[in-house]
Structure formats: C-alpha cells, structure tokens
C-alpha cells in the first residue's frame, strides 16, 4: 500500500478530484444569480470543505443506501451527491449562497458539471469506473476475510484467487456475421485481441425458432426451449395472453422450465436475465421481479458513488440528445428502411446504458465474492439495433461499448476471488427490413381482420421488446400475437389446437388469403398428414418432406424444416404460424412489429448467434443447433472446470429417469 507508485497514483487522484471540484464550484457560483463574490481563496476553502463533508457523510450515506436497497438505494444515491454539496455550501464561511432552494439548485448544477467534466477528463475511457469497482471488490473481499476470522484491519490487498470460475456474458441480439465483421474492421479491440492472439475462438450457432431472448434463455439456462413458442403467446386452457418480459408472467413460466438442474444451480448468479437458471442469487432477473436488496453491495455502491447512478443520469441526457440527432440524420438522408425512434425508445436507450453499468458493478461484486458461475445479459446493442438497424453506426457504437466492458472486466479480474474464464455469446441475431405495415399499408392485424370479417382481431401493437408494463389486452375471437416476423394466430373460442379443416370451417377465407399475400412467406397449419408449410406457389409437408410446386422453405435456409418441426412441438403454439416473406437477395424480412431490426422467426441473420470461448476448450458437437445444445455445452465446460457438484453424466441419468420431462432436450 505504501509503494511509491501507489502513493503517486493516489496523490494524482486527489489532485484531479480537487481540480474538478474547484472548476465545478467556480462555474456553479458564476452561474448562480445574486452571488457577490467568487474569490479564488474562498473557493479553495470551499473545495476543502466539500472534501471534508464528503469524507464524513459519504460513508454514512453508503450505509443508508445499503440498508435501504432497491428503489430506496436509487433515490438516496442521487440525494447523497446533492446533500454533500448543500451542506458544504451551507457551512461556507463566505455565505455566498443562502436559502434552501438556491442551495439545492447550486448543488444540482455542481453535480451535473462534475459528471460532464469527469467524462471529458476520462476521454471516453472507463478508468474512473474501474477504480470505483476495484474499491468495491477489495471492500467485499476484506469483509469476507474478517467474517472468516481474519484481521479486522489490514492494508494488504487480497490476491486473486486460484480456483477457476466461469463468467458468461450474453450480448443480446448480436449475430455472428455482424460480430465477425466488427472484429475484422478493428472496431472491437478487446475481443479482437482475444481472437487474434489465439486465447479465444469464435463459432456460430443456430438458434432455431422462435429466435427470441426468452426462448433462447429458456434453453441456455434451463434446457427447456420448447416451453416457449414466441415472445408472446396465448394459453387456451387458461384463456390468458402471456408476455414473457412481464414479471408476473415470467414468474409463472419459470417453474415450467426449472427441474432444479439449471445452468447456474451450483451457487451460480443470474444478472439481468429473463429466467434464473436455478441460480443461488438472482439480480435484476425478470422472473424474480425485484431490485437488488441489502445484500447486493454492488447495487448500493453504484447508487452511492458520484461516478455511478448520478453520472449515468447526467450522461443519459446526452444519450437522448445523441439519439435525437441520429434519428434526424436518418430522416434527412432518407435512409431506408427506418422506423420512428421517438416515444418510449428515447427513455429506453439511456436506460440500457444505465443497466449496463449497473450490471458490470453487480458482476464485479460477485467476482469478489467468488461466485463459481455468473451469467449476465447485456441488452444495449439489441435495443438500439431494433430501431436503427443491426449494422448501422448507432448499433456499432453500442457494440463498441460492450467491448469496452469486456476490457473493464479484464482489468477487474486481478481483484477477483477466482480466476475467471470469460465466455461471450448471443441469444439470437437480428434481420433488417421495412416493416409489414410500411410495405403494404396495413398491419397484419388489420389484414387478418379483413380476411376473418365480421370478426376483428385485437392483438398487442407495442413492439415485443418494449411490453414489460403492458396490461392484458381484450381477448378477440381471432387473436394475432406477433414477435418480429413471426406471428401466432389463435382461434380463442376453441380450447384445443385446431387443424386446417376446423379453421376453414370457422374462417373460410383466412388461410387462402394469408397464403396469397406477398408479405406472408409461410403459413404453417396442421393437416391430416401433420404440419404443412404453405407458400404462394407450393407446399412442404414438414413430417415427411414432400414438396408440391415450388418449395416455400428454400428462402429460409437449410435448417428451416427442422426449425418449423421443432416449433410445432412447442407448448401453446398457435393454430396458425405465420412467417413473413424474405428477400432472396438482401435477406430482408417484413416484421409484423414496427421494428427495422427484428427477430423471432426465420430469414436473414436472426437465427445466426455466436459463441466466443477459450480456444483450448473442446466443443462436443460439430454444430450447435438450438439453445438446448448450447446449454449442454456450457454444462460440460462447468463440469470440466469442476464447478458442478454433480457431474454431467449424473444429470443426464437423472433426466432420463424423471417424468414428466419439461423438454425433449433433457432426453439428450
């Protein structure tokens, strides 16, 4: 702790902090009306006063943030930074600002200025964030050492642990072609270094259908993909529309997936995921529907730190301004395809950035605690790519930010209680294209309404990835439920899944009208010989592969038949399954939602996910086909590292002996 290099670094940090505080206070006092003097000596005294008040109050406020947890930590985290400045200004001997409203206004200005100046001094790096995270990790490890009977006070830094650990980072919505191109272009220095040095290798894997986050995570975390037929679906038995990113629905879904042998069962941690994977600790996991509590010091430290939540809020405003500029640029250049980027997305984009920083803080804490396996979903790229396009500059900027986070975790690894191996993977890709409504002047719901008149479909119109707070819609006789360019149609008056004859009896014009529409590439319905895929100029019987006319599956790739067959076996699949048409040249799809980048069905890059892993690690299967296969591969690696309390072979034996099975994936 007393080495000359560390002393110099500490003095440099103190000098920088004092300089930033001086500039911030000078600017704040200059802007405040009625301030008679901005004397340099008085301001220097105020700098010392701010430092002293902060040294006394911040530890106490941190205790309060830890005690509150959840929403209270968020509120107190912002108040903490303002409180320090307010008290310092109140104690200022020069008494240049008086009155509580003026004090609070000055404190808010000072906090905003500090966040902007720190960001400018960092020059886009993450040095300050790393220093705060390292401080958190050392505190966690020293606390663990004391609880284990170690000394109450020590200046010695804990050394990195020697036991292995596995950190799995999911880059949501990232396709293998996009990642490979970004690496070749040199835009991802961290991942590029791993791949070029040979420490890691990149392989693609096929997601199958539905290519959505909940379905993929059901497979990756639980090995039970077939419990989820789309992002949304209708359950006829219960008469309920399920939305998988709605917490109460995710909580109801998880018991169907979990058999106690999930990916994270042996002391693992789930961060920011749809489901828990049977983790011992679940943080910001949708199915658990709670903010981190008092035990999550990473959450509390991020909220209380001046480089945490408050800084993210200020920079989030800049992210909104950036988004407005980029959307305007798309309109002025008449860039096609494009969709509206206003409304909820303006809040969603900075929220994704905030969530990323929170997730990294939570990962840092769990690395310090020595969690054997950590799985975290980072959604920045996916959210922007939905509205900007999967390969547009805005999306690439988010991907570069995720690559920086990999560099941050590399720099944090010496403070961890284990030697963590890092695996980067995605859950699906995205396909670009003008939407169905933009191409044909009406939504799929409206078109189905015409074909099924006098019945009118009343399905959700909010993009699937943004429907977390959506109330239950009214259930129509014919319900259209869309996820990207996949749509499930349900005849809700019937409690069983219907075949073609029954559908034609209820709605004679429906199937022929859908098949004839140029925006519909596939209509899948059960017939006497099993499921049949209908296209405009031909049919494909999925069970035996017999084709009549032009094969409608050809534009969707060689895995289309297997994907559709597997999807037909999913629970609660629609009476009709629709896939939009795909351009054979550009591979663009026509999403049934208002998203320029979409996923859920087939066509384009949406089913081409990626897996980056240590190059010396073996892959059991020559091709990873489906999330369940990725689940088995990750378990094999956990077993190889000695992180499963029971070997993989025991899991397979238990799965084969148990009944009923949640997914055929458990059959091996």
Automatic annotation (TrEMBL):
Species whose genome carries this gene: Paractinoplanes durhamensis
Pfam families according to UniProt: Phosphodiest
InterPro entries for the chain: Alkaline_phosphatase_core_sf, Phosphodiest/P_Trfase
Top-level taxon of origin: Bacteria
Protein name: Membrane protein
Residue stretches spanning the membrane: 62-88, 100-121
Region (Disordered): 453-473
UniProtKB keywords: Membrane, Transmembrane, Transmembrane helix
